[in-house]
User: What shape does this take?
Amino acid sequence: MISINQQKYITSLHLKKFRQKYRNFLVEGEKMVKELLTQQRVAVVTIYGTERWAAQNAALIQPFYDKFNTTTEVELKKIGTLTTPNQVVAVAMIPEQAILSSIDPNVLTLYLDGIQDPGNMGTILRIADWFGIRHVCCSDDTVDAFSPKVVQSGMGACFRVGILEGIILSDFIKIHPDTSVIGAVMDGQNLFSTTLFGSGILVIGNEGKGIRPENENLLTHKITIPSGAENGAESLNAGVATGILVAELLRNKLVY
Amino acid sequence: MISINQQKYITSLHLKKFRQKYRNFLVEGEKMVKELLTQQRVAVVTIYGTERWAAQNAALIQPFYDKFNTTTEVELKKIGTLTTPNQVVAVAMIPEQAILSSIDPNVLTLYLDGIQDPGNMGTILRIADWFGIRHVCCSDDTVDAFSPKVVQSGMGACFRVGILEGIILSDFIKIHPDTSVIGAVMDGQNLFSTTLFGSGILVIGNEGKGIRPENENLLTHKITIPSGAENGAESLNAGVATGILVAELLRNKLVY
Assistant: This one.
């Protein structure tokens, strides 16, 4: 049973305003909640699950028994954002964000310059997670990494990758003045014939507009993913471009 | 003005069954229709646009004047699948598909083994388009490349990349017995330490289940995208994985 106040609180977390106010976010569905409960970094606030789910996951819930509430599919539908039937929703703490000076300039960090699509955002966080990138910095107009859609499409990457919100690229550079600032532009050097940088900050531009001019001016390395098309292909999706860039920049570290 | 029969015909094309029966598909929105009208490969059947759109695009429409019908935003909403206001919808011919023996085994071809998500499908077609891959073969349980969602997320890639539907991988291999059959699996050779293959067929598995066992048995080269994560990352999105694989396999051809 979920009280009216709990219901109000949980649905308020659908909105960025309240996620930021309370520093809480929603984790929905069996797969994501299981990931949440089996990691150490993100604190669990409350769990709302059906009796069936609780019975099937007794060992998983045991360490969180004081945070668990029994509910029904009908109630879960009211408080959640998923359109498919769901057995469990959890409220988790947004982890405290790292300070810029704590970021190691000798590894690769991502800077997202106005990424808008939640699916792309989730995909990019999965790439960071896969390739062991520790920090993803986000401009203040980048889609919220803790929105339900991004949490879902990110497949739990937000439990492992450090996210820094509201970051201005020039602030990062002031603190790390010697770092490489790498970005993909239309007329840059061929990605595959550049010397590889396994360190610095890789700037990923907005889906339609690319890197904003004031940030493009800060790039120390302008690169382009070469096209093999004879007559003008359209473009690559922002997630795919990020994947190709990151894999190539980290290539030497990934060969074994 | 769109007649009831036209309306029935166009909305029938929302469904694969009727697209296959009539070999027609829908192209929606100003950007996609502009791409359709400025390419040579896919034949245009009819165009339904608002007066405003027609006035703004007189030169573009001119070669198709006998195929153009004036309509309204309200009618377009009825016949189309877009949720945002739209000015134009076109009906186009699905191009005749290439025969397997006409595919050049000395270039890279993609084989999609049960890709389900329209967004992933569109992303993969954009990758093929970008890197100049001429043919994408699809298993019969792969999402339809000419569905409205795939056309939209593919950003016009289906106008340029040759799509072969209902292809059985072993049939391709019978016709091209010496070709490399490359696939990403969990325990393959590190992608970045393999000798590069710029030719053959790259098999992309289903989002959840990967490459089906009977096709995995046909692989001549099993590769893995190495992870840089210290404690088990989840996985890469199918589109991102395809992008990284294709970029790496074609790397030597892309350096200039």
About this structure: Chain B has a mean pLDDT of 94. Chain B touches chain A through 43 residues (CB under 8 Å). The longest helix of chain B spans residues 118-130.
